[in-house]
Amino acid sequence: MPLAIALIVGVVLLAAVLFGILWALLFLVPYYVYAGAAAYLVWRARRRGSDLQTSVRHQADQQRLLNEQEARAWQVALGTDQADAAERLEALRNRRDPQKE
């Protein structure tokens, strides 16, 4: 009789363990897969956002450098034009009119 009780208790415990494993496979594993996939997607989106932000910052720096270079080129060209204009005016002022002489 005690052997029968021990077998019944053993079978009940084994059934409880198997039910626990089955419950984990059916309910917990899909939940953890879902949670893991969500965490991965959030991590990937943040990483891509960070990469995009770095790329935009780099492109903005390059554009700013190009704008500064273009502004310097315009200033040099304008300065050269102004210097040439001043030289032409000076030459015109200093030029003697042959009809007056």
Describe the overall structure.
The protein is an all-alpha fold and 101 residues long. Helices cover 92% and strands 0% of the residues. The chain has one helix and no strands. The mean pLDDT is 88.
The share of residues in helices is over 70%
Mean pLDDT: 88
- Straight-line N-to-C gap: 149 Å
Class from secondary-structure proportions: mainly alpha
Q: How big is the Rg?
A: 43 Å
**What is the beta-strand fraction?**
under 5%
Please, what is the oligomeric state?
A: single chain
Q: Short description, anyone?
A:
By secondary structure, this protein is mainly alpha-helical.
Topology:
Blueprint (H helix, E strand, L loop, with lengths): L1 H93 L7
Q: What are the salient characteristics of this protein?
A:
101 residues, mainly alpha, 1 helix
